[in-house]
Amino acid sequence: MTLAPVYGGVEEGDAAADALLAALDAGVTFVDTADIYGAGSSETLIGRMLEKRRDEYVLATKFGGNQDANGILVPGMGRPEYVRKALDASLSRLRTDHVDLYYLHRLDPSTPIEETAGALGDLVRAGKIGGYGLSEVSARTLRRAHAVHPVTALQTEYSPFQRAPEKELIPACAELGVAFVAYSPLGRGLLGGQVRGFDDLEAGDWRRGNPRFQAGNVERNVSLADRVATLAAEQGVTTAQLVLAWLIERGALPIPGTRKAANARANAAAGDLALDASVFARLEEIVPPDAAAGAQGNESYLANLDT
């Protein structure tokens, strides 16, 4: 997502491509995108840069996240005919004949999940996708889909600032054998150290409408991040590396995004860290559940989540 202009403009030149290549060269083997990131520009970049390295990584993309002018999901994106059409378009942009993991980006309230899961199961059997996933759905919806065709992965926001999945989703995934993928593992940048206040966000940055970055909330969240940074410095690692290592230790598969090659390499190094359990316990003391100030998203964003 960060390779598209979602968090402000993308730098001129080859910075995004360099970050993508740096991640692979550092040993990252999982690339996650979606058809709505930059209206397809993220998929196009990945297809252009990684076409000749397709056997080096697991490729995931998503469908069903288009929204109207009010930020509400367009109905019908879970229908079987739409699923097939969306996949063909993504395959063309990605320059491949299959994706390893294909997600329903958001639950389509106008289509029973059983119909969508059935269509995705057909695509698995046809060899066009290796498996399918769901994003930001409830444990109840996960179970309904899994009963039709086994779900490969569930993706939702999870970080020290967003620990709600620990209540029901993560246990359900463990019970069903579904991989748990954590998006925005660095609190949408708050735990990356670059955002110190609302004015640090560029015009057009999606986060300018997020409650956690509003005045009165962002200061509280930056203060929490600073305490995590102090803990990380004591261990000789970056804040991002500490948080990513914590997520890995908890069994999650974090997918940090960046536009900078140096950050991609540093993030990848988190997978090799061997930190004592007491360090992770201190992190959880610093940022207990529900410590973050502000809701996960604004009203229209929350309306699109299956809770």
TrEMBL record:
The keyword Metal-binding does not apply. It comes from the Bacteria. Keywords: Oxidoreductase. Residues 14-286 form the NADP-dependent oxidoreductase domain. GO terms for molecular function: oxidoreductase activity. The keyword Oxidoreductase applies. Pfam families: Aldo_ket_red. GO terms for cellular component: cytoplasm. Coiled coil: none annotated. This is Aldo/keto reductase. It comes from Actinomadura montaniterrae. The lineage of its organism: Bacteria, Bacillati, Actinomycetota, Actinomycetes, Streptosporangiales.
